Amino acid sequence: MPKDGGIGASSKRREDIRFLTGEGNYTDDINLNGQAYVFFLRSDIAHGVLNSVDTSAAEAMPGVVKIFTGADFEAVGSIPCGWQVTDKHGEVMQEPRHPVLAHGKVRHVGEPIAAVVAESLSEAHDAAEAIVVDITDLPAVIDMKEAVKEGAPKLHDDLTSNLCYDWGFVEENKGAVDKAFEEAAHVTTLELVNNRLVANPMEPRVAVGDYARGTGDHTLYTTSQNPHVIRLLMGAFVLGIPEHKLRVVAPDVGGGFGTKIFHYQEEAFCTFAAKACNRPVKWTSSRSEAFMSDAHGRDHVTKIQMALDKDNNFTALRTDTYANMGAYLSTFAPSVPTWLHGTLMAGNYKTPLIYVNVKAVFTNTVPVDAYRGAGRPEATYQLERLVDKCAHELGVDPIALRRQNFITEFPYATPVAVEYDTGDYVATMDKLEEISDIAGFAARRKESEAKGKLRGFGVNCYIEACGIAPSNLVGQLGARAGLYESATVRVNATGGLVVMTGSHSHGQGHETAFPQVIAEMIGIPEDMIEIVHGDTANTPMGMGTYGSRSLAVGGSAMVRATEKIIAKAKKIASHLLEASEGDIELKDGAFSVAGTDKSVAWGDVTLAAYVPHNYPLEDIEPGLEETAFYDPSNFTYPSGAYACEVELDPETGQVTIERFSAADDFGNIVNPMIVTGQVHGGLAQGIGQALMENCTYDSDGQLLSASYMDYAMPRASDVPFYTVDHSCQTPCTHNPLGVKGCGEAGAIGSPPAVVNAVLDAMRSGGKDVGHIDMPVTPARVWAAMNS
Amino acid sequence: MTQVKMTVNGKSASGDVEGRTLLASFLRDNLKLTGTHIGCDTSQCGACVVHVNGEAVKSCTMLAVEADGAEVMTIESVANADGSLNVIQQAFQDHHGLQCGFCTPGMVMSASALLKENPKPTEAEVRHYLDGNICRCTGYHNIVKAILAASGQDVSALAAE
Lengths: 787, 161
Description:
The complex is a heterodimer of chains A (787) and B (161).
Chain A: H1 16-20, E1 36-42, E2 48-54, H2 56-59, E3 64-69, E4 105-106, E5 112-118, H3 121-128, E6 132-137, H4 144-147, E7 163-169, H5 174-182, E8 186-194, E9 197-198, E10 206-212, E11 217-222, H6 227-239, E12 246-249, H7 265-277, E13 281-284, H8 287-293, E14 296-297, E15 300-308, E16 314-326, E17 353-362, H9 376-394, H10 398-405, E18 412-413, E19 419-420, H11 425-435, H12 441-450, E20 454-463, H13 471-477, E21 485-491, E22 497-501, H14 510-522, E23 529-532, H15 550-577, E24 584-587, E25 590-593, E26 599-601, H16 602-610, E27 625-630, E28 639-648, E29 655-665, H17 672-691, E30 723-725, H18 745-764, H19 778-785
Parallel strand pairs in A: 1-13, 11-12, 16-17, 22-23, 29-30
Antiparallel strand pairs in A: 1-5, 2-4, 2-6, 3-5, 7-17, 8-15, 9-14, 10-11, 10-13, 15-16, 18-19, 20-28, 21-22, 21-27, 24-25, 25-26, 28-29
Chain B: E1 2-8, E2 11-17, H1 23-30, E3 49-52, E4 55-58, E5 71-73, H2 87-94, H3 104-117, H4 123-129, H5 141-150
Parallel strand pairs in B: 1-5
Antiparallel strand pairs in B: 1-2, 3-4, 3-5
Helix pairs in contact in B: 2-5
């Protein structure tokens, strides 16, 4: 029987009421008295010398309040990067200055050059058209391999080249890896592209800056996944505003998928301009602006090789990746192709030797940073495409080859520096074979063939590292931040609780799921618990939501704070019950004395804490409020096995997803409905990457896919009903809830299954092309079929 | 500036707008009906769907002056008179048909227009009808399921949680 409350219940989401009735409070819904509007004039040239920006005509336009250019920001800091990678020679990465508004040069289409603040957005827009910008074009640097060649034009004159870093991992293993390849019975090689994507949360970014001259207080309302991170980065590194004079509010946020982690120029601009203009300044991104200013994702070009012995055991793996950084380093960009990617290259397999090389490259494109999965989809795609190719080259069953090489004993220390605590890859593969009805595939293929279609079946496994992360470890790896999470639990006199969390919900349903945990711990109804998040003024310093970390890290902080609450409440109860503290038990919202019928209700204890007339004041303080910061001791390692079944029309190259099955191991689960929904969403994004989404530039650096007319977003008719199962559960051993995280799995695990299925369909039609790059569009499939 | 008058959610509404002001902006900025969302600038995403004279319309494809004299219904008008969720809204909550909520008003307005034209749509008809509404969170599974459920069809076989 499903539970009707607490951990494991599919509690309906309380936040839905306001979203379904139009009463959400998104950043663009915030309008402050006297606010002005900003329009950014953005570069339409990818690379050039910015000779002059003449704003004189624009300043005379109606409604203009003030126009800003790069010169206005010379005294403020650079937009900071939050992670410093050290390369294989022990040198730190090259780190260019990233101005709020372009100064001296423009380096990508969409880079803001000037900002017009006006009484209305249309007046700001009109005035921007009267600004005269003089740019001397320079050759655009777009292709990563060309970018790092000797003599290539440099983006940043003060750097030695366009190479950000050349990272080797684990460098000491390289010799042994190369030797294993020399001794291999078989080597499979694969070259592939992980296509550049745009995250495209449906809510475009918005920033509203406000300044109170009377107190010197700044407020920024922004579409962020982590308001405290923005406060720290922008306050300390860009504008020099101390945290106690800067409040950052991220109210309802309409999806993030990574791209709303980062600190952007527009946030710093609105905060700065609000003081300079002495009035609130609001920016609302258009979708077209979003395409050329939101950090993009993926964009890796990789050569990967597997060495196998004569019995088809994996003996070594090596990879060579070029990772696009874009024109500047976005907040966590350097970490994505390195520590979030290289450490996952073992996947689900006991490959004993691994070497990963990554060259991160600057190009005249929008900065690239974390997008749902961040490094882990890239690792999974390479590895799972490679394993499939191994199987076909060797003439063995792809599932059998995977099973043969599975890690089966835990904990397992990989050769790429992480230790998986738990997992059961055999169980998730067994479950996948069951739910995908692999046994019925042959009959379904026949049905497709009777219609003149080809049908393909593809599988893959995945492992991910979530719940980022132990602060001392990531500090050693170059993070310029801690990665703990926080919670303050405030119990009110009448027994209700308010939990102020550093996590941020932008679709994940924290307001529903987090109370389920506390309700279970105390034994009270979920509706007695309220979650507060997204405002630095009323939440403890927290690192926010990304990397499937909220429940594993933020939830753990909440558990620790609630444990402190319960411990204190037991002291109060023991006083009220005149019993020894050690005999007090909490169950179903009441404290009782073990072995007696004496008890006191939760509400009586909380009332006593705030009306301490009969209270042990000599031993404990009044009140009932506790804070905890939780720093995880390891990552968590969700895993699973996915299967995709496609139908391919050989006449047109059109591929349709007929079935998609996902068997995941997320450890313990708090709200199965929400978990399933997270997987669904990830699957659509992974299927989108595999079949249709592609962010492309021409050789001049013009962004060709800059609107929903050109960038193919998955629509309802592009995807099927999914079959999702998460009954395989190996709880995490090192957090109090035993949870692993589920937010990114769908996006990580699905692209290789889709491409493996397409290749299987093509083989069934007599065409074995070995590999096809994403997105697997009809044009590419048709060309491959007819090559 | 031109003055426009229309009936919005059963009440008369008026305001001065520029010729280029979109209906979506008029609703959000002039009338403060911020439930109607703007997710793109090419009339692709459908977050701004409202009903104009009973038809589903992307309010970013219509100028405010074009809606002069029209009957406009927005997401704010959908709930039952006592404030409880209507059948479609309730189905979206029951079947987890929303996550971040940003596309949701447009989805609900499109779904209600669909069910008015076609009270018992098939899965394929629902998916086809929603092609003008983009959701990035749900993968559409639970949106389609919610709309089928709202039409009174049995969805119990679809990945119940």
